[in-house]
Design brief:
The protein has helices at residues 3-18, 22-36, 40-46, 57-70, 75-78, 90-103, 105-111, 124-135, 211-219, 226-238, 251-258, 282-298; strands at 141-147, 161-163, 168-169, 177-179, 181-183, 195-202, 245-248, 267-274, 305-312, 321-329, 333-341, 346-349. The protein has 352 residues and is α/β, with parallel strands linked by helices. Helix 3 packs parallel to helix 7 (105-111), helix 4 (57-70) packs across helix 7 and helix 11 runs parallel beside helix 12 (282-298). The protein is elongated and about 65 Å long. It binds S-adenosylmethionine.
């Protein structure tokens, strides 16, 4: 077994701890101890051929475990998993976990082929105010484009309900509620967002109405984050076929093609993205920014353009801080508007 596999488990324990998942920190540690002792975890991961660190092998493993629980195939362990109504019970937690590992080695070997993929609608608590800011009190229709969409759930940002001490928003009747802490001033929101197109791309787009895609997304939410889990479940249940249109495509070539497509007067084209920029090469990032500048040079007050993104800012990264930045054209203006938690649990608006 290569040393990177072991290192990936060691590092994952610390990441789970820092990201607030005591349950996963404990279970990944138990998996690591089992691996070191030459137990079934060693047999499961030993043949892994990818780069265990960059592929997040421990999260693939835990995704497989969570999926067994969600599929009803691990009832004892389910009693410890808050996403299915359980409560971690220390005296039996590790034993129940290792029993599931022992009974499902082939399944867990296969599960390692499934790359972790999430779609976090909490990020809409930053993206939607960014969109409101870009609109700037104008009554424009919006053509919303998104790269790294996953299942496209953030293309439906205006449909969710939002609850904070500083602002609220009423979405569709059947939509989930996003609750978060807000600090700072609040941008001016329109009465409603008139979004005439919702189109996204992803290297691996997921159809939110496909049960297989649903369970895949749900299985990668950490099992002691039931709020996130229920919110995602509700969003997946809300989506109807045709609500969003997703292409299987690389972000750079897709943006080049889409942002220059002609629009009617009175329509603002908006490119949005969240927590995907770090996956792009320097070349892809430059291609996208150049395509936006090119389209921006053609933008007019009747056909404006905006770039709304909520992405980690490595140079100022403070464990949880993601930055909301908005660029608008034709009169090119770029502003850092806010900072927020990666899952949108808090947003601090810094723009006056
Ligand atoms: C961490 S997820 C974020 C998904 C979504 N934006 C959100 O905030 O919930 C990153 C997504 O980016 C996609 N992705 C990574 N590289 C990409 C690329 N070059 N082109 C398009 N999508 C990409 C992944 O497949 C994945 O769905």
């Amino acid at each position: 077994m290569n040393e990177t596999i072991r290192t990936s488990f060691v590092k994952q324990v610390g990441w789970c701890d820092r990201m607030g998942s005591a349950l996963y920190a404990e279970l990944v540690q138990a998996a690591l101890d089992n691996l070191d002792a030459g137990g079934p975890v060693r047999d499961i991961v030993a043949g892994y051929e990818g780069d265990a660190l960059s592929d997040a092998l421990p999260l693939r493993f835990m995704g497989g475990i969570h999926r067994l629980v969600l599929d009803g195939k691990a009832p004892q362990l389910a009693g410890h998993f808050p996403t299915v109504g359980g409560t971690p019970y220390q005296p039996t937690l590790v034993k129940d976990f290792l029993d599931v590992v022992d009974d499902n080695t082939d399944y867990l070997i296969d599960a390692q082929q499934v790359a972790p993929q999430t779609n976090e609608i909490g990020r809409s608590a930053a993206l939607l105010p960014g969109l409101a800011y870009a609109l700037d009190n104008r009554s424009l229709q919006i053509r919303l484009l998104e790269i790294g969409s996953s299942a496209g759930l953030n293309l439906l940002a205006d449909r969710y309900h939002y609850r904070s001490d500083h602002w609220t928003w009423e979405g569709s009747v059947d939509a989930p509620v996003i609750t978060f802490d807000w600090a700072g001033s609040v941008p001016s929101f329109p009465e409603r967002f008139e979004i005439v197109e919702r189109r996204g791309c992803d290297l691996s787009p997921l159809d939110a109405s496909d049960p297989e895609a649903q369970i895949r997304l749900l299985s990668f939410v950490w099992a002691d984050q039931p709020g996130r889990f229920q919110r995602l479940k509700a969003a997946l249940e809300m989506v109807q076929p045709g609500d969003v249109s997703l292409n299987k495509a690389d972000a750079a070539s897709w943006v080049e093609e889409r942002v220059l497509e002609p629009t009617a007067p009175g329509v603002m084209t908006v490119l949005q993205h969240s927590v995907m920029w770090m996956y792009l090469s320097e070349e892809s990032r430059s291609t996208i920014l150049a395509a936006m500048e090119h389209a921006g040079a053609r933008a007019t007050n009747e056909r404006p353009l905006a770039h709304v993104r909520f992405e980690s800012a490595p140079e100022q990264y403070d464990a949880e801080g993601h930055r909301l930045t908005v660029t608008t054209w034709p009169d090119r203006e770029e502003r850092v508007l806010a900072w927020g938690h990666a899952h949108g649990t808090w947003v601090r608006w810094t723009q006056r």
